[in-house]
Design brief:
Blueprint lengths: L1 H21 L6 H13 L7 E4 L6 H11 L8 E5 L8 H6 L15 H5 L4 E5 L9 H10 L1 E2 L8 E2 L3 E6 L3 H6 L5 H7 L2 E4 L10 H11 L10 E2 L1 H9 L5 H15 L5 E2 L6 H7 L8 H4 L20 H11 L3 H19 L4 H8 L3 H10 L5
Parallel strand pairs: 1-6, 1-7, 2-3, 3-6, 8-9
Antiparallel strand pairs: 4-5
Length: 371
């Protein structure tokens, strides 16, 4: 028992060392489990990998990690292709290449992205969006390691590892006949599911710090820190776009920063403040005239958990109960939310808020929110 526990500790330390060497931010148990799998499959150079998971979870970064840990391919190229962005009319020539004169505009030979990745990794992002007519040709590459260039009569051998990624359910796409079942089986040799941010909330804080440092150039004269309540609020948020959305929140907060060293709750984007308050969807501008805005009514019952407390408790902690500063912060948040709803139309804002347009203009100037 003790020897097994010691071996597990040693293995975890090895995995964390690998993650640190690759620059992976966060060391949650979910990420350690993920990289334990990655460390096992990376050396299997001849086998394709299928990465699945929600959007924004870092599938391309994981593909880079597999490439870096593959001893046979780490020195070869890493070619990334977004299948959703491929033009239907040019996709085949982009992937498989062409000979000069094959079609109008083909003024020189081009070997294509598959052959360009020879000796390394071809990363096919959004593989579920690959055209159905190209799928059998990709299957041929996976089965026979051969590519037929447009305008050529003979196939060319290619030595490439394919890593595909998707946020779609490929099994369901095969049932709908939108994705070939044989191609799915060929890709699904080494399946890896990338955990979403909800499954590794302990990584939110180091990720937020990383993004703060990454985008510090937005406020080069203001060294910033992140307040504890800001972290707590982030952990309560629904972030369907995962790490990508977290980065965007940090970037917006830096730009919106109120005077002071720390990023606090009031620096969060308006829609995030609404989410924290459990507010309903923001009304569309055409609805603003006919609807009375629903007031925010936070529950202060501690038995209800921390679902809506961070915003209000955070204001008190940030401004130490100072009424003037708390009211100023609330006024700025309300203005931001209404301005976003009205797309900056100050007349609409005045009607919603029950004040004059002149007052709206004055308050926007006061808070530096002029449109």
């Amino acid at each position: 028992m003790l020897s097994d526990a010691a071996a597990q500790v040693t293995e975890d330390r090895r995995i964390r060392d690998i993650m640190a060497r690759l620059g992976v931010v966060g060391a949650s148990e979910a990420m350690v489990r993920l990289f334990r799998i990655v460390s096992r499959i990376s050396p299997l150079s001849q086998l394709p990998v299928l990465l699945t998971g929600e959007t924004g979870t870092g599938k391309e970064l994981l593909a880079h990690a597999i490439h870096a840990l593959d001893p046979n391919r780490c020195k070869g190229p890493f070619i990334a292709v977004n299948c959703a962005a491929l033009s239907p009319t040019l996709a085949e020539s982009e992937l498989f290449g062409y000979r000069r004169g094959t079609f109008t505009g083909a003024e020189r030979d081009r070997k294509g992205l598959i052959r360009a990745a020879s000796g390394g990794v071809l990363f096919l992002d959004e593989i579920g969006d690959l055209g159905i007519d190209l799928q059998p040709k990709l299957l041929r590459v996976l089965q026979e390691n051969r590519v037929l260039t447009l305008g050529e009569d003979e196939e060319v051998l290619v030595n490439v590892r394919v890593i595909a990624a998707t946020n779609q359910d490929l099994r369901e796409l095969t049932n709908q006949r939108k994705f070939r079942a044989d191609l799915f089986q060929r890709l699904n040799v080494l399946p890896v599911r990338v955990p979403c941010l909800r499954e590794r909330t302990s990584d939110i804080e180091p990720l937020a710090r990383y993004f703060l440092a990454k985008h510090s150039g937005l406020r080069p004269d203001d060294p910033l820190e992140i307040a504890p309540d800001f972290f707590e609020a982030l952990k309560l948020l629904e972030m369907p776009e995962n790490v990508r959305q977290l980065e965007n929140i940090i970037r917006q907060a830096i730009v919106r920063k109120e005077p002071g060293i720390q990023l606090t709750l009031i620096d969060l984007p308006p829609e995030i403040l609404l989410q924290l308050c459990k507010e309903g969807p923001v009304a569309h501008p055409t609805e603003l005239q006919s609807q009375t805005p629903t007031p925010i009514r936070p529950s202060l019952d501690n038995d209800s958990g921390m679902e809506v407390l961070p915003l209000w408790e955070g204001l008190l902690r940030t401004y130490h109960g100072n009424l003037v500063n708390c009211l100023r912060a609330c006024e700025r948040s309300l203005l931001s939310v209404v301005m976003q709803s009205a797309h900056g139309n100050q007349s609409q804002m005045a009607r919603v808020m029950g004040i004059t347009a002149r007052s709206v203009y004055s308050k926007l100037r006061k808070h530096g929110l002029q449109t």
